[in-house]
Hints:
Layout: H1 9-20, E1 22-26, H2 27-37, H3 40-50, H4 57-70, E2 76-80, H5 86-97, E3 106-110, H6 113-127, H7 130-133, H8 135-149, H9 151-158, E4 162-166, H10 171-182
Helix pairs in contact: 1-10, 2-3, 4-5, 6-8
BIS(adenosine)-5'-tetraphosphate is lined by residues 5-11, 26-28, 31, 48-49, 52-55, 60, 80-82, 84, 88, 119, 123, 131, 141, 171, 174.
Amino acid sequence: MFGPPGSGKGTQSVTLAQKYNLLHLSTGDMLRAEIAAGSDLGKRMSAIMAAGELVPDDVVIDMIAHKIDATREKAGFIFDGFPRTVEQAEALQSMLAGREMKIDRMLVLEVNDEELTDRMKKRALISGRADDADPAVINNRIEVYRAKTEPVIEYGRKAGVCHEVDGVGSVEDIFQRLCSQIERII
Length: 186
Ligand code: B4P
């Protein structure tokens, strides 16, 4: 599941994972859990995330590899917020190839910047997330997405797995659009 911050990746991934018996892997959730637990890793990543920057590639690649190896009895995985750089995409592809798995679909939620900012401001009222509270950090996250994460879309296009989905509308309508893409491959 791919898209800018606030595009609905987390929202949609949770219900898609339930419907298709997939393990939902959100690197953002994993990192926030490290911060909440007060681990050394969490302490090191906290300021980076609060500024709306990306944490180092090797940190998230290691987290994902451990989860993949520890998982049994699922039909597959839904990656939410990963990969976020071309380096992470390359690491994911070789990680999966070494385990006789592959990326079946890259679903890109398309949402305009105004709507993204609006959603994150609303979420700030309930989430307590430092990176949602400050408009300058929201803008930085969108800029980081355009500079470092958007190039992954081209990577997915070349691999023939990328599909854009309109991410504006009701959560249920967008869910149905995503399901129709997934059902083409199962
Ligand atoms: P994430 O946790 O991935 O946060 P996000 O980009 O804001 O996406 P999220 O999934 O939370 O939002 P969603 O679109 O579902 O990352 C946080 C930080 O962790 C990053 O900035 C970075 O520092 C670090 N990080 C994570 N992964 C990394 C990686 N791979 N490499 C390096 N660093 C990494 O939802 C947004 C809001 O919109 C919600 O409130 C929702 O209710 C609402 N919404 C959803 N759909 C809607 C709809 N259709 N209409 C109206 N509102 C909607």
